[in-house]
Amino acid sequence: MASFRFFMLSFVLLATTTLPSQAGAGKKVVLCSTFPVYQITRQLAQASPALEVQLMLPAAAGCPHDYALTPQDLRKLGGADLFIINGQGLEEFLDDVRRASPGLAIADSSGGITDLLPYTGEGDDALDEDHNHGGMNPHLFASPRMRATIAWNIATALGKLDPAGAADYQTRAKAYAEKMEALAGDLAALGTRLANKRVVTQHGVFDYLARDMGLEVVAVVQAHPGQEPSAAEMLAIVRTAREKKAGAVFTEPQYPDRVGQAIAREAGIPAATLDPVATGPEDAPPDHYETMMRQNMRTLERVLGVR
User: Fold this and answer.
1) Sign, Cα dihedral of 36, 38, 39, 43
2) What does the pLDDT look like over 261-287, one tens digit per residue?
3) Which residue in 272, 267, 264, 265 sits closest to 301, CA to CA?
4) What is the pTM of this model?
């Protein structure tokens, strides 16, 4: 199967590498793997005369678990000077990228971050060949505090690609990090006031945010994103939610909420939606992440109660 996939990848690559780049004249192309990485990079490279920032995955694609590269992706990779990734194994297609574009510079926005959490959301799949996240949770982007560190990493990568603009990228990273730290402080303050701090989530995307806020994720609905739990697994989640006295089941707009709603009904607790901002409009405004996170704060306050 792997050899067949590589054959098809090579065939598609030969068919697409002759297409011209869409970059502006004289600009270097910075290609971002996912919407969260793209949003941060856009803000750091805004108005840069030397760089053009592009998004590879569709802005509505969400976390690229099990994502397969398309001909359009390969064309974008062929025209890129730098590929910025989320890292920690979120881009399960990364080996295909390296085979398709062996000379492409790749910057890992999670590089050097040490306070990572183990990725418990996928259970036994966390270390298997097809879903290898290196054992660490890759969903750093849902935490404003982690996004602050990611911004510094991206600014450093941009400065290496465009040394003349390095100081500007660092200045913008500092301003962005300060905004994220302020938002993280507001979320942490809310966490201290919540009446119930135990929650069930859709998958492991909120683990870092939960740590920031002092919340306890007692169970996840999907052991692997996109794969619904079996009837026995649903019963186990319901049992855990009852035993741990969870305050709510939180689903995500990127996934159907039918199973989460059913678990909440059986457990006798409310269900609501929290947005990790894994998706959004490609032309999202600079404050899109902050806007969605403050909406999440209102949801948490309403559903879990405050004291």
Assistant:
1) positive
2) 999 999 999 999 999 999 999 999 999
3) 272
4) 0.88
